[in-house]
Amino acid sequence: MLHPHERDAIVAREALLQDNDTNYQALVEIFVGRKSSHIALIKQAYLSKYKTQLDQDIINIEPPHPYQKILVALSTSHKAHQADVNQHTAKCDARRLYETGEGSPGAIDEGTVLEIFTKRSIPHLKLTFSCYKHIYGHDYTKSITDVNSGELEDALKKVIKCISNPPNYYVKILFASIKGMTADRGAITRVMVSRSEPEMDEIQRVFKAKYGIELRETICNSIPSGDYRDFLLALANKTV
């Protein structure tokens, strides 16, 4: 019953206040999966409801985590840029990522990666990672794995997968959440509600191709009957 930006403000707050550990996955989905105009409304709703700035609350997370740097960079990008996409610039950015990553000895250059995340829109970043694969023959996430593996690298891989192939990213979350020992209602509801209009058709196609079973059937087999299951099935049936 809430406006989408109000709902996202609440999701962000709950993610920040989650017991024991910040739910970075939920925050990444907001900053990657929403348009800049929507992010601005989320921040306004967050400030109005909680009397504090979302960006500042992310910066103040304790203990510090590499996700903070990535989220702050993405937030800055939303404030500074529209959905500008430039093929030449994307190729240049892809080459910079290569030259400061697998193209040179040692770990990836954190500064270069965060600079690109800060200055480019989400559609442009998606094109950059597509160009990287076209030029070098594999995903940038593979180069991160080959160069080094740590908290920053793990966080970058998850964010980049969400940027590069949203349906595949959300399908994996849904399957893991629904088929887990105890269904992660927060993750299931968040994905089903937020992606019901932009890409639910594609999510269902990818889900069937990847796991050999319909999303609706998986929900029926794994979620106990009742209003909650009916709610999820209604969202799954809301296709165009």
TrEMBL record:
<dbReference type="GO" id="GO:0005886">
    <property type="term" value="C:plasma membrane"/>
</dbReference>
<dbReference type="InterPro" id="IPR037104">
    <property type="entry name" value="Annexin_sf"/>
</dbReference>
<dbReference type="GO" id="GO:0001786">
    <property type="term" value="F:phosphatidylserine binding"/>
</dbReference>
<dbReference type="Pfam" id="PF00191">
    <property type="entry name" value="Annexin"/>
</dbReference>
<keyword id="KW-0677">Repeat</keyword>
<keyword id="KW-0111">Calcium/phospholipid-binding</keyword>
<dbReference type="InterPro" id="IPR001464">
    <property type="entry name" value="Annexin"/>
</dbReference>
<dbReference type="GO" id="GO:0005544">
    <property type="term" value="F:calcium-dependent phospholipid binding"/>
</dbReference>
<dbReference type="InterPro" id="IPR018502">
    <property type="entry name" value="Annexin_repeat"/>
</dbReference>
<keyword id="KW-0106">Calcium</keyword>
<dbReference type="GO" id="GO:0009414">
    <property type="term" value="P:response to water deprivation"/>
</dbReference>
<dbReference type="GO" id="GO:0009409">
    <property type="term" value="P:response to cold"/>
</dbReference>
<keyword id="KW-0041">Annexin</keyword>
<dbReference type="GO" id="GO:0009408">
    <property type="term" value="P:response to heat"/>
</dbReference>
<protein>
    <recommendedName>
        <fullName>Annexin</fullName>
    </recommendedName>
</protein>
<dbReference type="GO" id="GO:0009651">
    <property type="term" value="P:response to salt stress"/>
</dbReference>
<dbReference type="GO" id="GO:0005509">
    <property type="term" value="F:calcium ion binding"/>
</dbReference>
<dbReference type="GO" id="GO:0005737">
    <property type="term" value="C:cytoplasm"/>
</dbReference>
